[in-house]
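<goal> How does this chain fold?
<sample>
Here is the protein in question

***
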Amino acid sequence: MLRRNFRARMITCAAIWISFALVASGLLLSGVFRNLVASHFDHDLQDHARELSSLVEINSNGRPFLARDFSDPRYFAARSGHYWQVHLPGGEMIRSPSLDADLELPAGPDGDSPAAASVNGPTGTMRMLRRVVQGRHLKEPVEIRIGADERLISDEMSHLHMVLATSLGLMAFGMIGTAYAQVAFGLRPLARIRDAVSAVRSGTVTHLPDDLPNEVMPLVKELNGMISANLAMVERSRIHAGNLAHALKMPLAILTMEARQLECQGHTETARVLHEQCARMVLIIDYQTARARASAMNNAGTSAALAEIVHTVINAYSKLNAGHQRSFEVEGPLDHTVACDPNDLTEIIGNLVDNAAKWSRQQVVVASQDLGASVCMSVEDDGPGIPEEHRERVFEVGARLDELKPGTGLGLAIARDLVALYDGRLWIEQSRFGGAAVKLTISKRIPAPA
């Protein structure tokens, strides 16, 4: 999918890069935050150690005590995770109310050290600071041990991690969404080109728009040049076909006159062969000329109002058959605009109605059905119908199932070729009225892009 979808490739690459950058940033920020939290804990321990050193005094019995209560209430609750302990050189000591056992001596120098060490505490691993100080009211130095459980740092980090993950997640969602919007906006000209090409194919416009971004204008100019070249080629082919037909009809007319003279001279068989071959050549020329004209017209502006053309054809054949007991009816919605040249659609519907009128007894029905992107038309009659084994043969050039009926055998062949030029389909089924139902599908007109 990624190999065939340019948008998906760009969005996927952007999402991978954004995710990698944010994960790396998260890990880096997590490390920075942990160092900051640990540093904050260490500073708290140092501040509390200085406070203890200023509060420790010796009573008349030689035992240490605090001149007043310690300022941080967390050291009063039993096993709160915050502990302190003061030692005299003689072995006398006092503990915080939260402590019920001696604190382990941390590894490190015997004197003051600004860094805390990790030791086993009463409620788990703790960060402890050891300082040896000389109090203002003391004659000899005392040792202060003060610490806090590392789980308190972990709890603080868990909260920070949650906030960090939420923030980075929202940031990732926003950045990926922005990348998607940027890619979608950046690729909109390609969608306009696609719609414009579809409009050119349907005949609504003749060229692609020239108000596209500079990055795609070279492509648009090349496509417009190719479209113009194709239109010119089709027009030249139509002119050449017309010229060829005109050039051939004059010799054919001369041959026909010679055949008549031979017939008058008594050469009946030779005249008959010449007449048949000349008629066949005229038939082929007319057919190929109609194909060339239709091919040339299957370009810009190929759109037709279905209702207008159907009613025009029906009215014309109703007048032509005014002396016959034959009715022409219309069923289904006709308010559609189809992707077909009006002249071609008139010829298609006209040929089908003409064929139905020849074979019908009393009724010809033109019906339509909306298929969404296309329209299905059917022309039905109540005549003898067409056997299934002959339903493809009647589309051959010059094919006639009944030589007594008037016609050239070109109507259905030309109609099928015209329908095929517009990517439609023409076929024959059994009519609801016992005769033949000639059906065709043709696309609706695609609106030109704004």
Observations:
- The chain has three domains: 6-157, 218-297, 304-443.
- The chain has a mean pLDDT of 81.
- The helical segments are 6-55, 150-202, 217-264, 268-297, 306-320, 342-359, 411-421.
- Residues 304-443 form a domain with the Heat Shock Protein 90 fold (CATH 3.30.565.10).
